């Protein structure tokens, strides 16, 4: 594969280890905006460095999960690397073997750093280097354990990520202290991706608002503060009128002492509308409801509409069992990833692909109150756990159905098109 459109910063991320000024650095940190080419330049650089400087050594490539690592790094790797590299994947071992015609060969172990227990996966290894794709999504214990495994002389750490909170441990311990850590820091923007069409760049800039715009577009480590869904305005609220909905889904946040929120969504002309809502708080009314009573409320909300799917928090086990026994609704356990869900919901609101009927008064009220915690003990962004039950149900709906994804999967098609033409992927 011939590279013809790398920016100076991308080339620096790939080849810093060859340059007299930087080759003695112990690490590289590439942070900044989405779609700036961090992943492709860092992955290429990591493999070129390791295959040039080592032979018959072990390395680690880490992502938040093995699945995301395969999707973002492993699958396109053959298109990114020069054609004389041979890649063999030992999928059952989560390992790549990369070799060159001159007889060089190294092993690359794949790890997912999803939670605090992940560090145990990498204990006991001896590595010549490690690359972290989206390191800000990984727990500190995992990252530090992986770094501690790099005991081979001249081993190096390769970090890339989109920014998070300025209270995040990686920002405080690595980005701010990169000189103390003997690390090269490169800050990326979308302007570093020379293959990114201006119309696609504008599309990404229009997708985000608030803290997500500052982080993902501007590439800044800023604090999440204030109202979460800043893109939700009076234009997001529409009259409750008949529409030709082609599909209906109910999403539910179940509570016993806490409120229960059931939201009815309908799809019309590519836009999801919150058609109606049910909201009950036992504390406010002084009346606790049983699972059977909530099921009747669900049936009344739906009426005779062709609703076949209910999305609900997996923790509502007794209610899920009751719904399945009734055999009317298919139950989908919600994807309860909070930050991803908030980001995706923010995107779909910003693009006006999620609108709310004006009859949904409790949901509209929560949009105006749903806010970030000012500061958390571990530096992670968290919403205030108040006025959030309709917001949780909305997040379950967006994240579980992937309503925020374009139907034609437009961006990946563009990425594949660039790769086929000999450019490079806009990761």
List key phrases describing it.
single chain, 427 residues, alpha/beta, eight-stranded mixed sheet, seven-stranded mixed sheet, elongated
The number of strands is 15
pLDDT below 50 for ≥5 consecutive residues: which ranges? 408-427
User: What is the N-to-C order of secondary-structure elements (H for helix, E for strand)?
Assistant: HEHEHEEEHEHEHEHHEEEEHHEHEHEHHH
Given helix and strand content, the structural type is alpha/beta
What count of helical segments does DSSP give? 15
Write down the Rg. 24 Å
Shape descriptor reads elongated
Summarize the structure in words.
This protein has an eight-stranded mixed beta sheet with strand order 3-4-5-2-6-7-1-8, with helices on both faces. The chain has a seven-stranded mixed beta sheet with strand order 9-15-12-11-10-13-14. It contains 15 helices and 15 strands. The radius of gyration is 24 Å and the shape is elongated. The C terminus is likely disordered. 35% of the residues lie in helices and 20% in strands. The longest helix is centred in the first third of the chain and has 16 residues. α1 packs parallel to α2 and α10 packs across α11.
